[in-house]
Model the fold of this input.
Amino acid sequence: MKIIVITAISTVVMMVSGFYMLGFHLPPGPLVVAQGKDDHPQEQLWTCGMHPWIITKESGLCPICNMDLVVKAAASDRQDEKKSGERKIIYWRAPMDPMEIYKAPGKSKMGMDLTPVYEDELIGGVEVTVDPVTRQNMGIRTELVEKNILNHTIRTYGHITYDETRTAQVSPKVDGWVEVLHVNFTGEAVEKGEPLLEIYSPQLLSAQEEYLSVYRSLKKGRQTQNTGFLESSRRRLSYFDVAETEIEALEASGQVSKTVRIRSPFSGVVTLNRAIQGGYVKAGTPLYTISDLSRVWVEAHIYEYELDQVRVGQEAEMSLHYLPGKIYGGKITFIYPYLQEKTRDVVIRLEFENPLMALKPQMYGDVYIKTGGIDTGTIISSESVIRSGERNVVFVAREGGKFTPREVSLGTSLDHGKVQVLTGVAPGELVVTSGQFLLDSESKLQEAVKKMMDVTQEPSPSPPDDADDFFEDMK
Done:
């Protein structure tokens, strides 16, 4: 043991002599090269952060790099620190330049005191600590994470169309010629039972004569099998769409009419007119299409990922561009079971009452479908989420000005700029809603610094082996 100590002392003496020969001067005070168990543990020692084998009993400058010496912690102090659970300093950095890193405290290139970076701040490599003044300058705002009802409104477009259950065609059931037109243009409104046209048909003429003959016979008191035949003749006229009023007029006049009136089956608007006065028509030819517009359909388009949010019976609203401020209320009555091939969306059918005829077919409107009101979940502001494409991150505010990034899983986008969070944060926590991008930049910078730096590497306890390494360290 004595031989090892003597050898070490001789080596240090030779190094010191070399320093003086090269023009370096040690600060006042003895140079300590080793400390055994019997040394004074309470004696204050100083060392160089860049050359830890330089140890003195007084402060001053390092004889190699001229940096200020720093206080050297005793081994017992380090053990007490670990036992007491105090925070461990990993490295020191310049307050104005996070990339300027040192292993020991001291001054930065700008002459400012270095700030410590603790081990618990490097958990994940991204936690950020910001003092109150800087938070004010950065404009950092926070918001409480809450659990509430998931209110979501689907905003889409829709076009108005006819109610197919209130649309009908008028077609003659006999061949004939159109003698008189009572409705002769498209768009005309008609009432139920109103005459549309008068048609001449040999079939209708013979049916009238047959009925009138039986009717006259019964009227003269011939009570034979003619009663059943009269009912059969009357039914035949009704099958040809001859109205009861026309049959009663036939009985009252006792004369066969050349033409028979075809009347509207219900009230509505003529959306198709193919009847031409004097034209010949065959049985089954559609002459009129009549639609009742007192109730209309709206076909709205939604994306396939929104299908699970809609159901039959949900309330919906619609606004039109030509009537700003007017909101119409309706409900979903049908969801089509297939996707549109070209647009890759799903059509849902809504019904709206239209008593004033303000909703006109082929109009486009803005549709709002309210899908929430039942389920609850964790909600945060959508602006608090940093979306990188691969992951979603929020910054959670902690005590002491700390901000910790959390990766979150998002659910449905909600109304009023909110978004549902599935995992990552809990109700009652504070998330940053403004200034989080500056925190993210600082966080990524700290993470990059940690990756660039091997925090587990200890400084070499021995001086350079040769002159080349010595001068390399001086640089």
Notes: The longest strand covers residues 323-339. The longest helix spans residues 2-21. The helical segments are 2-21, 75-84, 132-138, 202-219, 226-239, 244-253, 436-452, 467-474. Confidence is low (pLDDT under 50) at residues 1-41, 80-85, 454-464.
